[in-house]
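Instructor's aside before we start: the two examples that follow are unrelated to each other. I chose them only because their records fit on one page, so don't look for a connection. First example below.
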Amino acid sequence: MKENRFQSPAKKVAIIGYGAIGAEICGQLNSDPSVFVSDVLVRPGRTADVRAALGPHVRVVTRPEDLSPDVSFVLECAGHAAVQNTAPAVLRLGFHLGILSAGALADEQTARALEDAALQGGAQISVLPGAIGGIDALAAAQDGLDTVIYAGRKPPQAWRGSPAEEICTLDDLTEEFEFFSGSAREAARLFPKNANVVATVALASVGFDDTRVTLVADPRAAGNSHRIVATGPVVSLDYTTAGSPLASNPKTSALTALSALRALRNQGCLIRI
């Protein structure tokens, strides 16, 4: 096979967590020539199951200190608790970190702890776009925006296990129902498994308190959709990202897994887009 001149030698990467996204990542990168998952960091008590699923070629560890020292990038895909409890130690050890659970950064104490740990370790934090497109344009226009509104629409079953169940009977909905309207900070706190994307939008634009959010359960929705309307004196953005949920987890967009894969594959590319 002719060598791809845009690839560097295969890089080792690690992931935090082995749920639906972690399993998808490991499966997709199993034969990738540019990057491979060498380490998976999980909670104590999960090691046997994860080792059985991955086989002997992947190290399964329970402490950041046990990660292979030559790992070039660590990706969090384990939820807010992992960002709060595990990510700081990873950063202090000098590992560059990608975050999917951006909603955890709505907590100011968590955000400061990550920044302090990154400074101590000389590491960098990357917030991945996850389930939404256009974050590059939104971030580029950040200083020229006055208002940013995010609207999330998903089928009722995608909101099960969230505070939406306290407001409406999801199984009985026959038409769309808006069950939340507020700030991105509130949305990220109340809907950590569904609304991480609002945190990414807020971080890329006008902040958690000034980004407005509406969340809708729609029985006619075929999949998940995310709309951003951002306006300012110089630029105006209005775009929607629509995607199907991940087959193994209806609360997670398939695009989130693809975003994670792109971030990891970029570690093995000489030219990154």
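Example two begins here.
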Amino acid sequence: MQFLFMSLFALGIVGIDQLTKYLVVSHIALFADVPFLPGFLGLTYVRNTGAAFSMLEGQRWLFIAVFAVMTVLIFWEYFKKPLPFTKLERWCIAAIYGGGVGNMIDRISRGFVVDMIQTEFIEFPVFNVADCFITCGCILLLVHLLFFNKAFWKEEKK
């Protein structure tokens, strides 16, 4: 049952991500940058053919292959060889995966990822909703694994 709820959570992330990308492509792409929270965040339209910070630009098939392998590993871990992840850590994995699916839909259907959120208070690459879930999920997962889940790091005695 927990897997169902996490899958629905990931699907919700995909829906929110795709909706925001649709709105940006259909409205903001027609105009120049749009101030959202002046001095803090703006909306723009960027085609990203790479990964984070446009690394590995043009490596679409590499991203698809890595995503496919991660999908198989997530299902294998959950159903065949569960690791001692806490519920929070599993929710973080669902957030990361949901964001990954959102970006993968773009890569496959458009050949690039639509990015739209631009920070105005610091110089930072443009990103999207999926990137937010991936980043926050990764940070929370790593912090929780490093500082709170001692069972994850214990060696199994044979």
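The first strand starts at residue 34 and ends at 37.
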